[in-house]
Design goal:
Blueprint: H1 2-11, H2 15-44, H3 47-72, H4 76-79, H5 84-97, H6 104-126, H7 135-184, H8 189-199, H9 205-219, H10 224-235, H11 238-253, H12 257-286, H13 288-317
Helix pairs in contact: 1-2, 3-6, 5-7, 6-7, 7-8, 7-12, 8-9, 9-10, 10-11, 11-12
């Protein structure tokens, strides 16, 4: 700033002109920064760019995961748990989170082991920089770091499952309406699912990937009912499981798939409305705590504060 002001003062003699030019340059700089940020945001949010980079990003992540899995493959049998029940539960959680590769569980437990080892080592390595800490405190922080390293991946996986299921739940109503339209227009179930997946791949990429996987399984020779049941198992949502049950019954008894989808769509709209009404009914109860902690103290200060000050003033005169 001082260097720029010195250049301006050397070029211009009037101090007022120096200030005007300086303010103009600062305004142009902020304008350029704002335009650059807006262009970056618009480019990142562009549907075309997202559509072009969906496959590329997935291939890059998959290649990195495969390289890591091949690196730790010789010691994988020492890392994985011995109980089959725990393996099945973790495998199911990984599938619900979107990690469907064969090496996902090995990578998951390897990350847990590495974090449980690296975080305590980082705490011990940083201990000499804090000589005022006692040995008991350092041991406590080391144990806490090890606990975070073990539990951190579990919390991340749980949040990932909830986030993905929330995204699937949000995209399911739109996909169901599009599916009803496609089936009523004359498309078969497999073609309708593929068309819906192509239409929602930008708005709801998670649901689109699962639907495209259904069409891929059907083309590979898997039965329609089995492919739909695999979809319900991958997502873990009761809504999709109910739709799969209705579609399988419709295929078994030969009833109209369009009528089945239309009935389920209406029932799902009613269910969604009931869930919204339930959340609205809980709003009054949830507002009690913010009101008590935030509004009521200020209200009491405004209403009772002047009276208390007058009482104190009267008592002070006695």
């Amino acid at each position: 700033m001082e260097y720029l002001l010195g250049i301006l003062r050397g070029s211009l003699q009037d101090e007022f002109q120096v200030r005007v030019v300086f303010v103009g340059l600062v305004a142009l700089a902020f304008l350029g920064i704002g335009l650059s940020l807006s262009m970056l945001a618009a480019s990142a949010a562009s549907p075309l760019r997202r559509r072009l980079h969906i496959g590329k990003g997935g291939r890059t992540k998959k290649a990195a995961t495969n390289r890591f899995a091949k690196t730790i493959e010789p010691v994988s049998h020492y890392i994985l748990p011995s109980k089959e029940k725990e393996r099945s539960h973790v495998r199911e959680q990984l599938v619900h989170a979107g990690y469907r590769s064969q090496s996902a569980m090995t990578v998951y437990y390897s990350i847990k082991l590495l974090m449980a080892m690296i975080l305590p080592l980082l705490v011990l390595a940083s201990a000499p920089f804090f000589p005022q800490l006692d040995a008991s405190v350092i041991i406590f922080f080391t144990a806490a770091a090890s606990f975070i390293g073990v539990m951190g991946p579990n919390i991340y996986l749980h949040n990932k499952v909830e986030k993905r299921q929330r995204a699937l739940r949000h995209g399911f109503p739109d996909a169901l309406d599009l599916l009803v339209v496609c089936v009523e227009a004359g498309l078969g179930l497999s073609a309708a699912i593929q068309r819906v997946a192509e239409e929602i791949c930008v708005s709801y990429p998670e649901l689109a990937d699962d639907l495209l996987l259904v069409t891929t399984e059907i083309r590979a020779g898997i039965d329609n009912v089995a492919a739909l049941k695999n979809l319900a198992a991958r997502t873990g949502l009761s809504d999709i499981r109910g739709l799969v049950t209705l579609l399988s019954q419709s295929m078994r008894f030969g009833t109209s798939i369009a009528d089945t989808l239309r009935v389920y769509s209406e029932e799902f709209r009613d269910k969604r409305m009931q869930a919204a009404e339930e959340q609205a009914a809980k709003l009054g109860t949830k507002l009690i705590f913010p009101l008590v902690t935030c509004l009521f103290p200020a209200f009491f200060v405004v209403t009772i504060g002047p009276a208390i000050l007058k009482v104190l003033e009267a008592v002070g005169r006695l």
